[in-house]
Amino acid sequence: MSGRKTEIEIMPNWSFRMMAFLFRCRDFICPYIDRRIEQFEIKEGMTVVDYGCGPGRYTTRFARLAGDKGKVYAVDIHKLAIDVVTRKKEKGHLENIEPILANGYDCSLPDHTADIVCALDMFFAIKNPGRFLEELRRITKPDGLLIIDDGHQRRSKTKQKLLNSGYWDIIEETRDHLKCRPRYKQNA
Ligand SMILES: C[S@@+](CC[C@H](N)C(=O)[O-])C[C@H]1O[C@@H](n2cnc3c(N)ncnc32)[C@H](O)[C@@H]1O
């Protein structure tokens, strides 16, 4: 096993199920996702990557916004996430969703696939932010966008990791998330 693979921690199945249950409760008590994603400016025909999609609470909404001409890749390292999203895809007849099981920090999507990559409530848990952010840049179009949030870490930490990587420029900051553009000039 490579050194990179040992940096990846996949949560136990019981933990994933518990997380999915708690998300369902939270979304029932305090529905905020639809309002939140209005700020993401996802448009019909776009290609969106929901990176670390978990139980797909954002994925299905992205799929409806991107429409038949768009595409949503739901990437996760957990097999249960892929199973749940596949079920939601079938139940909702959302043919534009493609679940992808990542292998470590490699998601196997071609270079420059995405108009928008969303990494929500997951960046704080990434052990090798540099490697992770490099992969996100690889799959994002040169004029594409990364939408990333803090999760369980301070904003200053999120920004520090982004800036230290040299792969992204922060172009907008709200209480909820940061919007970033791929950076290609760090070695210039
Ligand atoms: C807290 S959940 C958030 C799920 C979803 N983004 C949401 O906000 O509802 C974090 C998810 O990120 C996934 N994850 C963690 N590290 C990952 C990695 N390196 N690549 C892809 N997914 C990862 C976990 O398996 C988990 O499903």
Give an overview of the whole structure.
The chain has one domain (3-182): Rossmann fold. The chain has 7 helices and 7 strands. By secondary structure, the protein is of the alpha/beta class. It has a 7-stranded mixed β-sheet with strand order 3-2-1-4-5-7-6, with helices on both faces. The protein is 37% helix and 22% strand. The chain binds S-adenosylmethionine. S-adenosylmethionine is lined by residues 8, 19, 23, 52-54, 57-58, 75-78, 81, 102, 105, 120-122, 125-126.
**How many DSSP H or I helices?**
7
Largest sheet: 7 strands, mixed
CATH architecture: 3-Layer(aba) Sandwich
Number of domains in the coordinates?
A: 1
Q: How many individual β-strands?
A: 7
CATH topology: Rossmann fold
Radius of gyration computed on alpha carbons: 16 Å
Structural class: alpha/beta
**Spans of at least 5 consecutive residues with low confidence:** 1-5
What characteristic shape results from the CA principal axes? globular
Summarize the structure.
With 188 residues, this protein is of the alpha/beta class. Helices cover 37% and strands 22% of the residues.
Chart the SSEs and their pairings.
Layout: H1 3-6, H2 13-29, H3 33-38, E1 47-51, H4 59-66, E2 71-76, H5 79-91, E3 97-101, E4 114-119, H6 129-139, E5 140-148, H7 155-165, E6 168-173, E7 178-182
Helix pairs in contact: 6-7
